[in-house]
Amino acid sequence: MKSLSSVGRIALFALVGAFVLVPLAQTIITSFVSTLPRAGITEGHFSLVNYLNILYSPVLKEAILNSIIYVVLNVALCLGVGLPAAYAFARYSFVGDRQLFFLLLVFRITPTVVLSLPIFVLFAQVGLENTPVGIALVHCVFNIPISIWILEGFIASVPREFDETAFLDGHSLPSFFFRHLIPAIAPGIGVTAFFCFIFSWVEVVLARILTTTGGKPITMAINALFGFRTDFGLVMAMTVLALVPGVAMIYFVRNHLAKGFVIRT
Amino acid sequence: MKPYDNRAWFLVLPALVIVTFVGILPLVAVTNYSFQDLFSLNNPYWVGVDWYRNIVTSERFYASLGRSFLFSAIVLSIQLPLGIWIALLLQGSHRFVVSTVLVLITVPLVVPWNMIPVIWLNFINPNIGLAGRTLAWLGVAFDYKFDALHTWIVLVVMDTWHWLGLVVVLAYAGISSIPPAYYQAAAIDAASPWQVFRFVQLPKMKTVLSMAVLLRFMDSFMIYIEAFRINAGGPDGATAFLSLDLGEEIQSFNYGPSAARSIVYFLIVLTVAWIFKAATSTRAPVAMEPAKELTT
């Protein structure tokens, strides 16, 4: 692999970058173009009209808020229950630990479409449909396993003496978690939050079946924009906005991704 | 060794409660539905294994199963080597290059899944799309709607665009966890780049790569929204994958048949997870081989 010259290497990376960016470029360009005939704007010319339309649309603004609420709730929930569980897996063996780990693996890879029908029925019965809270909860089915895997790897790389010293100093388990463990594995928490965020942010099958009449996130609001005469500029502008938080997250964790992390199976 | 302490259960309990509510409980419910004819949910009529018999005796099911396997096989055989190769090239690169490439390549991962086909349909549109117009200009008669091969090409390229970043991130995570001492030892033994890859890097990457294989296999095997929006399973059913049938039944609220289909698919998932577990738990000896082999 060392034989490839640095020029060839950069050329290849440029090619990969182009492969990623060119399809997106068209989306971004379309988002700045008026795609429907409008008074005062030439169709097909540069315009901010699509972004202004989002600003003037209560439905679209509410969808953005719904998305943010459910994804923040989901990440908080997954970190909150994932951290103690990851600590248990990293530090102790207990009855059924391997079976439980296997169960988490199974639920991580179960396609959402397989669970969507019963989840729809169950959530309708307990009143969790048409609300961001329902989406936040249901996305835990694949995000809790992810948070446990990634956090477990980070906790396992902290030597056990670290815990023992803290306990000898008189820390209780919660106080040890907040004062010592969380600061020590901060990059791990960032990486975990990143993966929980992306998998929850992009999921649409469960989000769709749970928000038939209300509480629609961005993805479903975009679906609702398709109709007899679709305003593609508006669709693309919403898509670009939907990318912004994700790209920001990637930017923040880029160095942690570059340093690498360990995942145990 | 880790100390044995069953009090650890208290720490996993909150996670287990949520997973039970959103995972296990729905599965129990769906198992129940799958043996009944539910015109409405209050009106169950026991039909036994009828729905299951309908599925496993239909040719359509096996045809979809075959197509899904083929799609996963193609996708894995492209994305895995490509992802590993990019990760290997990244390893020797400048820190700035590494983070730039990683940022770029993970961008498609944050695109909502229902927008991926919209972006690509726009991109390959023969009238307005950059790729569509370029192909037309080159004189290629590209017709993703009526030519099965072209639909397949679009799906494979689109899936690679979407998921290559995950393979690269995981492979790169595996490579960067290798201590420099391993490379120094390999250099002393005058190992070729291929030998370094085969006997140092690949064994150390095995865990994350098996993870990548599992995630990529399952997601491509059950591809749904992305494939459906491109050509709705067409032309003439050539891209009708497993999930499409299930999606259609759920959309029309056929509780019984879709419940039975969900269970059949879940059993496939369970089998895959079990094979994966069995394959990754017998791994200890491989990592120790290189010392001997490298000197030859």
Structural key phrases:
heterodimer; A: 13 helices; 75% helix; B: 296 residues; mainly alpha; MetI-like fold; 13 helices; 72% helix; transmembrane (chain B); MetI-like (chain B); Sugar ABC transporter permease (chain B); membrane (chain B)
SSE topology:
The complex is a heterodimer of chains A (265) and B (296).
Chain A: H1 6-31, H2 49-56, H3 58-91, H4 97-109, H5 112-125, H6 132-138, H7 140-156, H8 160-168, H9 173-184, H10 186-202, H11 205-210, H12 218-225, H13 232-259
Chain B: H1 8-33, E1 36-38, E2 44-46, H2 50-56, H3 59-91, H4 95-106, H5 115-124, H6 130-137, H7 148-176, H8 180-188, H9 193-221, H10 225-231, H11 242-251, H12 255-281, H13 290-294
Antiparallel strand pairs in B: 1-2
Helix pairs in contact in B: 1-12, 3-7, 3-9, 4-7, 5-10, 7-9, 7-10, 9-12, 11-12
Describe the structure.
Chain B: Belongs to the binding-protein-dependent transport system permease family. The complex is a heterodimer of chains A (265) and B (296). The two termini of chain A are 28 Å apart. In chain A, helix 3 (58-91) packs parallel to helix 6 (132-138) and helix 3 (58-91) packs across helix 10 (186-202). Chain A has a single domain, classed as MetI-like fold. Chain A contains 13 helices and no strands. With 265 residues, chain A is mainly α. Chain B has a single domain (60-294), classed as Orthogonal Bundle (MetI-like fold). Chain B has helices at 8-33, 50-56, 59-91, 95-106, 115-124, 130-137, 148-176, 180-188, 193-221, 225-231, 242-251, 255-281, 290-294; strands at 36-38, 44-46. The radius of gyration of chain B is 24 Å and the shape is globular. The two termini of chain B are 36 Å apart. At the A-B interface, helix 1, helix 3, helix 4, helix 5 and helix 7 of A face helix 1, helix 3, helix 4, helix 5 and helix 7 of B.
